[in-house]
Amino acid sequence: MEQGKGQFNSNFGFLMAALGSAVGLGNLWSFPYKMGLGGGFAFLVIYAVLLVTVGYPLLLAEIAVGRKSQKAAIEAYSDVHRGFKFNGVLQTAVPFFLIAFYCTFGGYIMKYLVYSVLAFGGKSVDPDAFFASSLLSNGGEALIWMAVFLVLTVVIVIGGVSGGIEKFCKIAMPALFVMLVVIVIRACTLPGAGKGLEFLFKPHFEGMDSVGDFFSTLKLAGGQMFFSLSLASGCLIAYGSYLGKEENLEKDAAVIAIGDSLVAVLAGMAIMPACSSFGIEPGAGPGLLFISMQTVFNGMAGGKVFGFLFWLLVFFAALSSSIGMMEGGVSAILDNRIKAGKPAKRLVVTLIMGVWALIGNALTTLDCLGAAKTVSWFHILGQPDVLDVWDAIAEGVLMPLTGLIMAILLGWVVPKYIDDEVERGSGFKSKGMFNFCIRYLGPIFMVLIVYGQLTSFWG
């Protein structure tokens, strides 16, 4: 077990860990249903534009800032410009809010995974009833599942960068990709699957046929991009600080952006054709994962096998992202201790963050997505449930806002700060595009995304 910050043993390990942080419920849960709400193809086009103009530049910037400083977000921003240290503080707060609900969903997924195994013994699951009993009416049982998922996250993070995070992600991420491809192949061979694929890939612009619709789709795609890529959450800066100086950062940022988006599109190819085949509404909201997909598995030939594979890959995705969130906070606290001349005790720091995650997720879990009255007193900030309280602060405000501030910092205040760091492993071939996006195009989109997120949660 590492005591301290640690370092990745290989570039492949870094890529798998960074992809693990990015590839999570944002890809397998929210991307497909938000794509459904955003009109399918129109959402995909806007998401692709945002990925190039906002996603890649911020990814490259965060990894480079982390590697150049060898520090987590707070101290890394202080190194860039002392006046922007506050942005590192805000980004470090993001994983604390995200993990306060993420382990709740991790627990739900664990329950579905266990029951998918029991299905081989003949135990059947009614999707609607199972969803209600798991999420909406049994906070006590859900609390146990959440705690088990949280313990798994804590144990892996305690193992350190190379001994825990890297080892897990080097196995989990390739396995996730293989399982997802298998499920996509099966979904695309279902009767009527073609309509689902047309919804995704046939050019149509229902999500962009008016200014209001365009802005609504932009808001959906922008918020999804920040959440899906783990941008402005402190995680990528922390992972960058563990990366060797000889690695090609441009290539790494491109692999993470493309790999994460590929998984998201494959998830859409797994879910939308299945929904089309079984007559399920593609914009069905969060229930698309927990109700719709289980309905599909119950009705398809070989559904038990594919149901098990599906819930296993969702579990891997959720756990790898949970690990990334926790490491983002742990790394920042370790930095603070090192700066103060105190021992960098990973075990102690991880347990402290684990306690916070337990408290936050207990509130989320017992709230039962707003269906219970147990913690209704915490429905603050004008939000209808505890989940939306955490999400409004993190995804609604901090992630897009601090991403915008980072673009202003590196585009205008210290415009050449990462050049030498990127050039260590490459010729910075994307420098022209990076500078144009980080200075001009990206900030425009990010202002729109910030406004859209604010109106989404408080409009």
Low-confidence stretches: none
User: Could you estimate the helical fraction of the residues in percent?
Assistant: over 70%
Q: What is the overall pLDDT average? A: 90
What is the CATH architecture term?
A: Up-down Bundle
Q: What is the CA-based Rg, rounded?
A: 21 Å
DSSP E strands, number = 0
β-strand amount: under 5%
Number of domains: 1
How far the N terminus sits from the C terminus, by CA atoms, comes to 47 Å
The number of helical segments is 18
Largest sheet: none
Q: What's the CATH topology label?
A: Amino acid/polyamine transporter I
**Helix and strand element order:** HHHHHHHHHHHHHHHHHH
Shape: globular
Which class of secondary structure composition applies to the elements?
A: mainly alpha
CATH class: Mainly Alpha
Task: Please give a structural write-up.
α3 packs across α4 (73-80), α3 (41-69) packs parallel to α10 (211-229) and α10 (211-229) crosses α18 (431-458). The chain is mostly helical. It has helices at 11-22, 25-37, 41-69, 73-80, 85-118, 127-136, 139-158, 161-188, 193-201, 211-229, 235-241, 249-278, 287-299, 303-339, 346-367, 386-413, 419-423, 431-458. The radius of gyration is 21 Å and the shape is globular. It has a single domain (11-458), classed as Amino acid/polyamine transporter I, CATH 1.20.1740. It is 77% helix and 0% strand.
